[in-house]
Amino acid sequence: MKRKRTSRIPVGAPTLTKKDFESDQDIRWCPGCGDYSILAQTQRIMPELGIPQENIVFISGIGCSSRFPYYMNTYGFHTIHGRAPTIASGVKMANPDLSVWVITGDGDALSIGGNHFIHLMRRNFDINVLLFNNRIYGLTKGQYSPTSERGQKMYQSSALGSLDTPFNPISLALASGSTFVARSLDRDPEHLRLVIKSAFEHKGTSFIEIYQNCNIFNDGTFFQYTEKETKADNTVFLEHGEPLVFGAERDKGIQLNGFQPEVVDITNGEYTINDLIVHDQYTENPTLAEFLAGMSSTPDMPHPMGIFRSVQHPCYEDLMTNQIRTAKERTGEGDLEALLNDGETWTVS
Protein backbone atom coordinates (compact mmCIF):
# COMPACT_ATOMS: atom_id res chain seq x y z
CA MET A 1 0.00 0.00 0.00
CA LYS A 2 1.45 3.36 -1.01
CA ARG A 3 1.90 6.01 1.63
CA LYS A 4 0.03 9.22 0.95
CA ARG A 5 2.42 12.12 0.40
CA THR A 6 1.57 15.46 1.98
CA SER A 7 2.14 18.27 -0.52
CA ARG A 8 4.37 21.17 0.52
CA ILE A 9 3.30 23.32 -2.42
CA PRO A 10 1.59 26.49 -1.13
CA VAL A 11 -2.00 27.23 -2.10
CA GLY A 12 -2.59 30.39 -4.12
CA ALA A 13 1.05 30.80 -5.15
CA PRO A 14 1.76 32.93 -8.25
CA THR A 15 1.73 31.18 -11.63
CA LEU A 16 5.21 30.98 -13.12
CA THR A 17 6.71 29.30 -16.18
CA LYS A 18 10.05 27.73 -17.06
CA LYS A 19 11.06 30.97 -18.75
CA ASP A 20 10.66 32.84 -15.47
CA PHE A 21 13.52 30.72 -14.08
CA GLU A 22 15.88 31.26 -17.02
CA SER A 23 18.49 33.93 -16.33
CA ASP A 24 20.01 36.30 -18.90
CA GLN A 25 23.47 34.67 -18.60
CA ASP A 26 25.06 32.80 -21.50
CA ILE A 27 25.35 29.12 -20.61
CA ARG A 28 29.02 28.15 -20.62
CA TRP A 29 29.05 24.37 -20.76
CA CYS A 30 30.47 22.25 -23.55
CA PRO A 31 27.95 21.46 -26.29
CA GLY A 32 26.36 18.09 -25.53
CA CYS A 33 27.10 18.20 -21.79
CA GLY A 34 24.56 16.45 -19.57
CA ASP A 35 24.35 19.57 -17.39
CA TYR A 36 22.04 21.17 -19.97
CA SER A 37 19.39 18.52 -19.38
CA ILE A 38 19.59 18.81 -15.59
CA LEU A 39 19.29 22.59 -15.82
CA ALA A 40 16.29 22.35 -18.15
CA GLN A 41 14.45 19.84 -15.95
CA THR A 42 15.11 21.93 -12.84
CA GLN A 43 13.78 25.05 -14.57
CA ARG A 44 10.72 23.10 -15.70
CA ILE A 45 9.92 21.74 -12.24
CA MET A 46 10.38 25.05 -10.36
CA PRO A 47 7.03 26.59 -11.46
CA GLU A 48 5.23 23.48 -10.18
CA LEU A 49 6.60 24.08 -6.68
CA GLY A 50 4.64 27.31 -6.40
CA ILE A 51 7.41 29.27 -4.67
CA PRO A 52 8.25 32.90 -5.54
CA GLN A 53 11.66 33.25 -7.15
CA GLU A 54 12.88 35.47 -4.33
CA ASN A 55 12.31 32.62 -1.84
CA ILE A 56 14.60 30.19 -3.68
CA VAL A 57 18.39 29.99 -3.31
CA PHE A 58 20.79 27.86 -5.36
CA ILE A 59 24.24 27.39 -3.81
CA SER A 60 27.22 25.72 -5.47
CA GLY A 61 30.89 25.05 -4.88
CA ILE A 62 33.46 24.75 -7.68
CA GLY A 63 33.28 22.71 -10.89
CA CYS A 64 31.32 22.57 -14.12
CA SER A 65 28.09 21.86 -12.22
CA SER A 66 28.73 24.84 -9.97
CA ARG A 67 28.01 27.35 -12.73
CA PHE A 68 24.37 26.38 -12.18
CA PRO A 69 23.29 29.34 -9.97
CA TYR A 70 24.17 31.80 -12.75
CA TYR A 71 21.59 30.19 -15.02
CA MET A 72 18.71 30.16 -12.52
CA ASN A 73 16.69 33.37 -12.20
CA THR A 74 16.61 33.06 -8.42
CA TYR A 75 18.96 34.04 -5.63
CA GLY A 76 22.23 32.14 -5.62
CA PHE A 77 25.78 31.82 -4.33
CA HIS A 78 28.77 30.48 -6.27
CA THR A 79 30.91 29.65 -3.25
CA ILE A 80 34.26 27.90 -2.65
CA HIS A 81 35.40 24.38 -3.37
CA GLY A 82 33.49 21.77 -1.37
CA ARG A 83 31.91 24.29 1.01
CA ALA A 84 28.45 24.69 -0.55
CA PRO A 85 26.86 22.57 2.25
CA THR A 86 28.34 24.92 4.86
CA ILE A 87 27.04 28.06 3.17
CA ALA A 88 23.66 26.41 2.57
CA SER A 89 23.41 25.42 6.23
CA GLY A 90 24.04 29.02 7.27
CA VAL A 91 21.43 30.32 4.84
CA LYS A 92 18.84 27.85 6.11
CA MET A 93 19.58 28.67 9.77
CA ALA A 94 19.33 32.42 9.09
CA ASN A 95 16.08 32.11 7.13
CA PRO A 96 14.38 28.71 7.50
CA ASP A 97 11.54 29.78 5.19
CA LEU A 98 13.79 29.79 2.12
CA SER A 99 13.90 26.86 -0.31
CA VAL A 100 17.61 26.03 -0.40
CA TRP A 101 19.26 23.92 -3.12
CA VAL A 102 22.87 22.73 -3.27
CA ILE A 103 24.38 22.01 -6.68
CA THR A 104 27.60 20.01 -6.61
CA GLY A 105 29.69 17.49 -8.51
CA ASP A 106 31.33 14.20 -7.55
CA GLY A 107 34.69 15.89 -7.04
CA ASP A 108 33.40 19.00 -5.28
CA ALA A 109 31.16 17.04 -2.87
CA LEU A 110 33.11 13.87 -2.20
CA SER A 111 36.76 14.96 -2.25
CA ILE A 112 37.55 18.38 -0.78
CA GLY A 113 33.94 18.69 0.38
CA GLY A 114 33.57 15.19 1.80
CA ASN A 115 33.51 16.23 5.45
CA HIS A 116 30.98 18.99 4.80
CA PHE A 117 28.82 16.59 2.79
CA ILE A 118 28.51 13.93 5.50
CA HIS A 119 27.68 16.48 8.21
CA LEU A 120 24.97 18.09 6.08
CA MET A 121 23.42 14.65 5.64
CA ARG A 122 23.46 13.80 9.35
CA ARG A 123 22.13 17.18 10.53
CA ASN A 124 19.04 16.90 8.31
CA PHE A 125 18.54 20.51 7.32
CA ASP A 126 15.59 20.95 4.98
CA ILE A 127 17.95 21.36 2.01
CA ASN A 128 17.92 19.70 -1.43
CA VAL A 129 21.25 18.42 -2.80
CA LEU A 130 21.74 17.61 -6.50
CA LEU A 131 25.05 15.83 -7.11
CA PHE A 132 26.10 15.67 -10.77
CA ASN A 133 28.18 12.50 -11.08
CA ASN A 134 30.26 12.16 -14.26
CA ARG A 135 33.09 10.13 -12.68
CA ILE A 136 35.64 12.76 -13.63
CA TYR A 137 36.94 16.25 -12.92
CA GLY A 138 35.63 18.09 -15.97
CA LEU A 139 36.46 21.72 -15.20
CA THR A 140 40.13 20.98 -14.53
CA LYS A 141 40.39 18.88 -17.66
CA GLY A 142 40.08 15.23 -16.86
CA GLN A 143 41.68 14.16 -13.60
CA TYR A 144 40.14 11.10 -12.00
CA SER A 145 37.59 11.83 -9.26
CA PRO A 146 36.36 10.03 -6.10
CA THR A 147 33.79 8.17 -8.23
CA SER A 148 36.11 7.22 -11.11
CA GLU A 149 36.31 3.46 -11.62
CA ARG A 150 39.44 1.60 -10.59
CA GLY A 151 41.74 1.21 -13.58
CA GLN A 152 40.34 4.27 -15.34
CA LYS A 153 43.07 5.84 -17.44
CA MET A 154 43.24 9.60 -17.72
CA TYR A 155 46.26 11.14 -19.38
CA GLN A 156 46.40 13.98 -16.85
CA SER A 157 46.67 12.12 -13.57
CA SER A 158 46.31 8.37 -14.04
CA ALA A 159 47.98 7.37 -17.29
CA LEU A 160 48.42 3.81 -16.00
CA GLY A 161 44.97 3.64 -14.41
CA SER A 162 43.46 4.85 -11.13
CA LEU A 163 44.28 2.71 -8.09
CA ASP A 164 41.54 4.12 -5.88
CA THR A 165 38.34 2.33 -4.94
CA PRO A 166 35.48 4.63 -6.01
CA PHE A 167 32.94 6.05 -3.63
CA ASN A 168 29.32 4.95 -3.99
CA PRO A 169 27.51 8.28 -3.37
CA ILE A 170 24.22 6.58 -2.47
CA SER A 171 25.91 4.37 0.12
CA LEU A 172 27.79 7.37 1.55
CA ALA A 173 24.60 9.44 1.88
CA LEU A 174 22.78 6.57 3.58
CA ALA A 175 25.65 5.89 5.97
CA SER A 176 25.70 9.59 6.86
CA GLY A 177 22.04 9.48 7.87
CA SER A 178 20.34 11.19 4.92
CA THR A 179 16.56 10.94 5.21
CA PHE A 180 15.89 11.12 1.46
CA VAL A 181 18.22 9.39 -1.00
CA ALA A 182 17.57 8.97 -4.72
CA ARG A 183 19.26 8.49 -8.08
CA SER A 184 18.27 9.62 -11.57
CA LEU A 185 19.80 10.22 -15.00
CA ASP A 186 20.43 13.24 -17.19
CA ARG A 187 18.98 11.39 -20.21
CA ASP A 188 15.67 10.49 -18.56
CA PRO A 189 13.97 13.91 -18.22
CA GLU A 190 10.61 12.62 -17.01
CA HIS A 191 12.14 10.49 -14.25
CA LEU A 192 14.51 13.29 -13.25
CA ARG A 193 11.65 15.79 -12.86
CA LEU A 194 9.68 13.29 -10.77
CA VAL A 195 12.62 12.69 -8.43
CA ILE A 196 13.42 16.41 -8.07
CA LYS A 197 9.81 17.18 -7.19
CA SER A 198 9.74 14.33 -4.65
CA ALA A 199 12.95 15.70 -3.11
CA PHE A 200 11.34 19.12 -2.69
CA GLU A 201 8.25 17.61 -1.06
CA HIS A 202 10.44 15.82 1.48
CA LYS A 203 10.92 17.65 4.77
CA GLY A 204 14.61 17.20 5.56
CA THR A 205 17.86 16.81 3.65
CA SER A 206 17.18 15.28 0.25
CA PHE A 207 20.06 13.88 -1.77
CA ILE A 208 19.88 13.03 -5.48
CA GLU A 209 22.77 11.48 -7.37
CA ILE A 210 22.36 12.26 -11.08
CA TYR A 211 24.30 10.24 -13.64
CA GLN A 212 25.61 12.97 -15.94
CA ASN A 213 27.62 12.54 -19.11
CA CYS A 214 30.85 14.48 -19.68
CA ASN A 215 31.17 14.10 -23.43
CA ILE A 216 34.65 15.66 -23.50
CA PHE A 217 36.63 13.80 -20.83
CA ASN A 218 34.54 10.74 -19.92
CA ASP A 219 32.03 10.24 -22.70
CA GLY A 220 29.66 7.30 -22.38
CA THR A 221 30.55 6.22 -18.84
CA PHE A 222 26.85 5.74 -18.04
CA PHE A 223 25.54 4.86 -21.51
CA GLN A 224 24.62 1.30 -20.56
CA TYR A 225 22.14 2.82 -18.07
CA THR A 226 20.88 5.70 -20.22
CA GLU A 227 20.70 4.51 -23.83
CA LYS A 228 17.59 2.90 -25.30
CA GLU A 229 19.37 -0.26 -26.50
CA THR A 230 20.87 -1.19 -23.12
CA LYS A 231 18.99 0.71 -20.43
CA ALA A 232 16.22 -1.79 -19.69
CA ASP A 233 18.59 -4.69 -19.05
CA ASN A 234 21.00 -2.70 -16.88
CA THR A 235 18.71 -0.65 -14.64
CA VAL A 236 15.92 -1.45 -12.21
CA PHE A 237 13.51 1.35 -11.31
CA LEU A 238 12.49 1.55 -7.67
CA GLU A 239 8.79 2.04 -6.97
CA HIS A 240 7.42 1.89 -3.46
CA GLY A 241 5.39 -1.27 -2.84
CA GLU A 242 6.44 -2.87 -6.12
CA PRO A 243 8.71 -5.89 -6.74
CA LEU A 244 12.10 -5.35 -8.36
CA VAL A 245 11.42 -6.31 -11.97
CA PHE A 246 13.50 -5.21 -14.95
CA GLY A 247 14.58 -6.16 -18.47
CA ALA A 248 13.46 -5.22 -21.96
CA GLU A 249 10.80 -7.92 -21.71
CA ARG A 250 10.18 -7.38 -17.97
CA ASP A 251 11.32 -10.97 -17.55
CA LYS A 252 13.97 -10.56 -14.84
CA GLY A 253 13.81 -9.77 -11.16
CA ILE A 254 15.94 -9.41 -8.02
CA GLN A 255 15.60 -11.90 -5.20
CA LEU A 256 17.53 -12.21 -1.97
CA ASN A 257 19.76 -15.28 -1.84
CA GLY A 258 21.07 -15.37 1.71
CA PHE A 259 22.69 -11.95 2.09
CA GLN A 260 23.30 -11.46 -1.63
CA PRO A 261 21.11 -10.03 -4.40
CA GLU A 262 20.51 -12.39 -7.28
CA VAL A 263 19.04 -11.92 -10.74
CA VAL A 264 16.41 -14.53 -11.59
CA ASP A 265 14.29 -15.34 -14.62
CA ILE A 266 10.59 -14.99 -13.74
CA THR A 267 9.30 -16.57 -16.94
CA ASN A 268 10.66 -20.12 -16.74
CA GLY A 269 8.44 -21.27 -13.87
CA GLU A 270 11.23 -21.70 -11.31
CA TYR A 271 10.71 -18.21 -9.88
CA THR A 272 7.67 -15.93 -9.84
CA ILE A 273 7.13 -12.30 -9.05
CA ASN A 274 6.23 -13.35 -5.49
CA ASP A 275 9.85 -14.43 -4.92
CA LEU A 276 11.23 -10.96 -5.59
CA ILE A 277 12.25 -8.17 -3.21
CA VAL A 278 9.48 -5.62 -2.76
CA HIS A 279 10.69 -2.03 -2.42
CA ASP A 280 9.79 -0.03 0.69
CA GLN A 281 11.22 3.47 0.59
CA TYR A 282 9.48 4.49 3.83
CA THR A 283 10.91 1.87 6.16
CA GLU A 284 12.84 3.44 9.03
CA ASN A 285 15.51 0.73 9.02
CA PRO A 286 18.04 1.67 6.28
CA THR A 287 19.10 -1.95 5.62
CA LEU A 288 17.04 -2.37 2.44
CA ALA A 289 18.21 0.96 1.02
CA GLU A 290 21.84 0.11 1.81
CA PHE A 291 21.38 -3.30 0.23
CA LEU A 292 20.01 -1.72 -2.96
CA ALA A 293 22.80 0.88 -2.99
CA GLY A 294 25.37 -1.92 -2.85
CA MET A 295 24.00 -3.39 -6.08
CA SER A 296 25.63 -0.48 -7.91
CA SER A 297 29.03 -1.86 -6.93
CA THR A 298 28.16 -5.50 -7.66
CA PRO A 299 29.20 -6.87 -11.08
CA ASP A 300 26.39 -8.06 -13.36
CA MET A 301 23.69 -6.41 -11.23
CA PRO A 302 21.38 -3.69 -12.59
CA HIS A 303 21.81 -0.20 -11.19
CA PRO A 304 18.79 0.92 -9.11
CA MET A 305 17.15 4.22 -10.12
CA GLY A 306 14.60 6.12 -8.09
CA ILE A 307 14.04 6.79 -4.39
CA PHE A 308 16.02 4.48 -2.10
CA ARG A 309 14.84 5.97 1.18
CA SER A 310 12.36 8.62 2.38
CA VAL A 311 11.80 8.91 6.14
CA GLN A 312 10.87 11.72 8.49
CA HIS A 313 13.31 12.93 11.15
CA PRO A 314 13.42 16.31 12.95
CA CYS A 315 15.12 19.06 10.93
CA TYR A 316 18.13 20.85 12.39
CA GLU A 317 16.74 24.35 11.82
CA ASP A 318 13.52 23.45 13.66
CA LEU A 319 15.43 21.97 16.58
CA MET A 320 17.62 25.07 16.72
CA THR A 321 14.62 27.43 16.68
CA ASN A 322 12.97 25.48 19.49
CA GLN A 323 16.19 25.47 21.52
CA ILE A 324 16.57 29.24 21.18
CA ARG A 325 12.95 29.74 22.18
CA THR A 326 13.41 27.55 25.25
CA ALA A 327 16.57 29.41 26.26
CA LYS A 328 14.80 32.77 25.99
CA GLU A 329 11.89 31.52 28.06
CA ARG A 330 14.28 30.41 30.80
CA THR A 331 16.77 33.27 30.88
CA GLY A 332 15.21 36.12 28.88
CA GLU A 333 16.39 37.81 25.69
CA GLY A 334 19.94 38.24 26.93
CA ASP A 335 22.32 41.19 26.85
CA LEU A 336 25.40 40.85 24.62
CA GLU A 337 27.17 43.84 26.23
CA ALA A 338 26.64 42.39 29.68
CA LEU A 339 27.87 38.99 28.55
CA LEU A 340 31.09 40.42 27.07
CA ASN A 341 31.80 42.36 30.27
CA ASP A 342 30.85 39.60 32.67
CA GLY A 343 33.49 38.25 35.05
CA GLU A 344 37.12 39.28 35.00
CA THR A 345 38.00 41.72 32.22
CA TRP A 346 41.00 43.92 31.51
CA THR A 347 42.03 46.71 29.18
CA VAL A 348 45.06 46.34 26.87
CA SER A 349 46.83 49.61 26.11
How does this model look, in words?
This protein is an alpha/beta fold and 349 residues long. 30% of the residues lie in helices and 17% in strands. It contains 12 helices and 11 strands. The strands form 2 sheets. The protein has an 8-stranded mixed sheet with strand order 2-1-3-4-6-5-11-7, with helices on both faces. Strands 8-9-10 form a 3-stranded antiparallel sheet. Strand 8 and strand 9 form a beta hairpin. Helix 1 crosses helix 7 and helix 4 packs across helix 5.
Spell out the blueprint of helices and strands.
Elements: H1 35-49, E1 56-60, H2 68-71, E2 75-78, H3 84-94, E3 99-105, H4 106-112, H5 114-123, E4 127-133, H6 169-175, E5 180-185, H7 189-201, E6 206-211, H8 223-226, H9 231-234, E7 235-238, E8 245-246, E9 252-257, E10 260-265, H10 287-294, E11 303-310, H11 316-331, H12 336-340
Parallel strand pairs: 1-2, 1-3, 3-4, 4-6, 5-6, 7-11
Antiparallel strand pairs: 5-11, 8-9, 9-10
Helix pairs in contact: 1-7, 4-5, 6-10
